[in-house]
Amino acid sequence: MSDLTRMSAAQLAAHLTSGEVSSVEATQAHLDRIGDVDGAIHAFLHVSTDEALATARDIDARRAAGEDLHPLAGVPIAIKDVVVTKGLPTTAGSKILEGWIPPYDATLIEKIKAAGLPILGKTNMDEFAMGSSTEHSAYGNTHNPWDLDRIPGGSGGGSAAAVAAFEAPLAIGTDTGGSIRQPGAVTGTVGVKPTYGGVSRYGLIAMASSLDQAGPVTRTVLDSALLHELIGGHDPRDSTSLNESVPNLVDAARQGALGDLTGVRVGVVTELSGDGYQEGVSARFAESLELLRSAGAEIVEVSCPNFKYALSAYYLIMPSEASSNLAKFDGMRFGLRVVPEEGPVTAERVMAATRGAGFGDEVKRRIILGTYALSAGYYDAYYGSAQKVRTLIQRDFDAAFAQADVLVSPTAPTTAFKFGEKLDDPLAMYLNDVATIPANLAGIPGMSLPNGVSDDGLPVGFQILAPARADARLYRVGAALEAALENLWGGPILAQAPELEIAR
């Protein structure tokens, strides 16, 4: 494996800036890595070789001319296939959008292109971001680089697997109920869900508009800070975008890496640990708390009693919003169109045939559930009640943050499970998000970082939550814990992963 693919994004950026490495060399190294291992991983749905190398050549020329460039200019990146990208296929993991080429870029893609990051391609995902295992992609499973028989998490398993397999130093994911953080936990990568509105949603194919949020997927906390600062900021095209500047996240990460958390109160959420959590997950969590205490943090216990209703509320709010958002996929304007073979060809019958053929089982399940929850006679009993629970969860967070600067928990209750293990039991699958969902309901930022390896040889994730607009706290505490963990484990957690067998 090329040393270039082993570097963090920050390290690679430093070599590019100094002129020791060209962007073409770095981009080609990652494209070669994709060619070597993605046959086994299937992280990518589309690899944009020509476009990535063209961007890399442009950045090398601009750097040689002495142009002042973004710190990440020339560092390759992978994009989750739910993000609209002009000129590149964008499918949201669904057959109903197979072959669709968007005519415009999402705002975050505009920022990535303006900064000069070569886009390696689009990554696999659960269809329309509905899933926790990437088993619901219409284009096949993505495999976990730690164990190819296990899931990489979901819905953003492709982005997490690409970063974990050293196919990309950076990736973009989206998080509606944990779809950045949970894949991060089971693949040994860092995943961040920013404060809701902190990164523009313009150009994201929406599942649940009040919950969706794009964010970084990386191998280090500092890399996430660099990417988060790049894609964040106000966007007038997104009505939910925060009208304020991006906080200085890179400085927070660098301060945290010094290892001093004196005066920081870390709240352990009692409802997000204990029964139902794998023994190895609980053991690594306890070890991480001791590392934070050793860095000077004060560990306090906090209770959020309404969190026990979060999963139920989420699985009413999310499908309700999804059923509305997915109504646009009707076979009339873009994407797949299926014409009935028999009988009259009416708009209604074309819509029914297109959706029947184009949507997978999980998408259909959630559309049916959401439509029912919003129907006359049930709206107040289901959707309305779920929104009231959402308010109670937000109040729980407010009370908890009055006692602590950040809240922590395991990111996921278990390590990566095997393919098919929970596929026929949707409720068991949904429980993977029990610790991540509350943050989306409240709109607060969250981070997952790898905090060790369980007894089964698979990575474990540690979740940090902060108040809305206090994303910098995630990076300070996360970087401090990352530094302590590297001392404990003798290097990055991802270094514990077995080496993949290459195709050539």
Reading off the top of the CATH hierarchy, the class is best stated as: Alpha Beta
The rough form would be described as: globular
Helix-strand makeup class: alpha/beta
- Runs in which pLDDT lies below 50 for 5 or more consecutive residues are none
Sequence of strands across the biggest β-sheet: 1-3-2-4-6-5-10-11-9-7-8
Q: Tell me about the largest β-sheet.
A: 11 strands, mixed
Radius of gyration: 22 Å
Mean pLDDT: 96
- When the domains are counted, the total is 1
Proportion of residues in helical segments: 40-55%
Number of helices: 17
Q: What is the CATH architecture assignment? A: Alpha-Beta Complex
Count of extended strands: 11
Q: What would you give as the CATH superfamily?
A: Amidase signature (AS) domain
**Series of secondary-structure elements, N-terminal to C-terminal:** HHHEHEHEHEHEEHHEHEHHHHEHHEEH
State the separation between the terminal residues, measured CA to CA.
Answer: 12 Å
Q: How much of the sequence is in beta strands? A: 5-15%
**CATH fold name:** Amidase signature (AS) enzymes
GO biological process, one term: translation
Subunit structure: Heterotrimer of A, B and C subunits.
Family: Belongs to the amidase family. GatA subfamily.
InterPro entries: Amidase (IPR000120), Amidase_CS (IPR020556), Amidase_dom (IPR023631), AS_sf (IPR036928), GatA (IPR004412)
Give the arrangement of secondary structure elements.
Blueprint: H1 3-6, H2 9-18, H3 23-41, E1 44-47, H4 49-64, E2 77-80, H5 107-115, E3 119-123, H6 157-164, E4 171-174, H7 181-187, E5 190-193, E6 214-218, H8 221-231, H9 249-256, E7 265-269, H10 279-294, E8 298-302, H11 310-325, H12 347-358, H13 361-374, H14 380-401, E9 406-410, H15 426-430, H16 437-442, E10 446-453, E11 459-465, H17 471-489
Parallel strand pairs: 2-3, 2-4, 7-8, 7-9
Antiparallel strand pairs: 1-3, 4-6, 5-6, 5-10, 9-11, 10-11
Helix pairs in contact: 3-4, 8-9, 9-17, 11-13, 11-14
